[in-house]
Write a structure and sequence with these properties.
Shape of chain A: elongated
CATH class of chain A: Mainly Alpha
Number of helices of chain A: 6
Number of domains of chain A: 1
CATH topology of chain A: Arc Repressor Mutant, subunit A
Number of strands of chain A: 3
Helix content of chain A: 40-55%
Distance between the termini of chain A: 53 Å
CATH superfamily of chain A: Winged helix-like DNA-binding domain superfamily/Winged helix DNA-binding domain
Structural class of chain A: mainly alpha
Largest interface: A-B, 66 and 65 residues
Oligomer: homodimer
Radius of gyration of chain A: 21 Å
Chain lengths: 131, 131
Amino acid sequence: MPKLTDPACAPQDHLARQRVALVHQGAIERAAGIFRAMGDAPRLRLLTLLGQGESCVTEIAAAEGEDLSTISQRLRVLRNEGLVSRRRNGKHILYGLADQHVADLLFNALAHASEGRADLSRFASLNPTKE
Amino acid sequence: MPKLTDPACAPQDHLARQRVALVHQGAIERAAGIFRAMGDAPRLRLLTLLGQGESCVTEIAAAEGEDLSTISQRLRVLRNEGLVSRRRNGKHILYGLADQHVADLLFNALAHASEGRADLSRFASLNPTKE
DNA sequence: CTGTCAATTGAACAGTCGATCAAGTGTTCC
DNA sequence: GGAACACTTGATCGACTGTTCAATTGACAG
């Protein structure tokens, strides 16, 4: 019987399997920034809310039962990573998801995290558009 | 000419547009946990490395020029969120991406963050498998 | 121009996170 | 069994993050 140790991890193997940096460090840092911004439950809730359509800060704060300032700060973080759009409308400023890519990321993660238990029907307009 | 204020954000509108919680709070928290784990550049680097195939901790540490313990701690965070798989092989413990879903999330974010500048060819085996 | 509504900003404080070190577990080889 | 290897764990500590409060900006109505 042959040795059954190290079929994939012998020292010489480590040398042989030189791995190249596939992705530029800058890209990794930008992606990490996006994930970090989404990696906070209150902020992620906010994104799912925006996934249903644009809202102004006041409306969001009312829906979440939170302070205006708190919501504004959360939106600032999301905006710094380019995850939300912003446009003024009279006295109000309307926020929304920045683009389809953000909606996809959101949709994929939520679908996975809720393992089919969620009703994402209202997200329909934002679902990944394949062909 | 009608007033052009508040076409989408009048007070009565706020009341009318009651938004339902589409996603269970638990799902949001799990998704946030996943994003948080991925929201750190060193950990995200680690995931892209594992995207090229399984590695043992020693190999990873050598590739990253980091301490064994540091790598182990990073892997622990990723493991707590179910992002990586682990199997023992002789003296070594091999880590890999947990499933296709993690690979998809990773791939999508990196593709977006590098805006076509990256060479993701070696990720081919992990690319989103549509139909 | 003044007051008011909508939202942002800066500062401060508490809570959380990540790298490191030292000590521990589990596995193989002799 | 015991030494050596591969990795994990717990504790510590500095750095970062999120919320809150107070003060500020910007837009609009009168």
